Amino acid sequence: MAFSDSLNNLDFDDSIQLEQEKSILTIWLNRPESRNAMSAKMVQAIQQVFSAIQDDDSVRAVILRGKGGHFCSGGDIKDMAQLRGEALVAGNNRPYADFNRTFGAMIEQVDVAPQTVVAVLEGAVLGGGFGLACVSDIAISLENAKFGLPETGLGVIPAQIAPFVVKRIGLTQARRLALLGMKFDGNTALQIGVVHEVAENEEQLELILNKTIEQIIHTAPHASRVTKALLHQSLTEPLDTLLDKAAEQFAEAVASSEGIEGTMAFIQKRKPDWVNYD
To answer: How many Cα atoms occupy the beta-carbon half-sphere of 212 within 13 Å?
Structure first.
């Protein structure tokens, strides 16, 4: 399998697997024996991949999914046991805090990645897996997937994912889910805004995914990157400043090769050249 140049020299364990089909990169969470519980090594591997493709225009979309019929069941309990030993040696809780903050950094990195991120959700979508789903641009779920924030029932808190859950579904729904620690299916996830489409079975799930990829390929690569950044900035920047910046970006887009090609393709009633982008 051929990978983009940015991915060729990465070195990580088998906690994730990569597949690339032209401009679409799939990251498989690959710990099926633990329902793809997120270990420290998995977190580091995901960070490596997203760092490597940050400036790689040849990767237009990233598909996140899990091996073995599950997306991700949350953090790895075995890592917690190891951290307990480190905390005892250190005489403080810093090992716990450092591990948790690294996970938050990974979630934030996925959130702001310039590529379009698609989460394909099956089986367990719990805790950290739920947080990862909440930072995807497009989320597709099987209707029998099991979502939830079980942390409070385990005596801990959804520390790093809480802000991203609130951004995704709003404070009212996030309060209810986090404080009750309840589990729910894909249809409820659709109703409250965690996911965008729900499939009845695996075959339909793949059809929806393929349709989503086709739609991504029809969008201009650079315009998509700028648009995603603009949407994120709309939550943090003053409106006047944001609109001024957006006007400049719009002018650049219209005058760019993408803008010219898109306009000409529309006039000539043909597909723009990026549809066949490799």
So the answer is: 24
Domain total in the chain = 2
CATH of the domain at 153: 3.90.226.10
Q: Give 3-state DSSP helix, strand, coil % of the chain, rounded to 5.
A: 55, 15, 30
Structural domain harbouring 22: 5-217
DSSP β-ladder status, 146-148 and 183-184: antiparallel
Q: Which two tokens stand for residue 241?
A: 């400043």
Rounded to the nearest 5°, which phi and psi values hold at 22? 55, -120
Digit-coded pLDDT (tens) for 197-218: 999 999 999 999 999 999 999 9
Instruction: Record the pTM.
Output: 0.94
| 269 in the same domain as 193 | no
Rounded Cα distance, 213 and 241, in Å: 33
The tokens describing 203, both together, are 């075959």
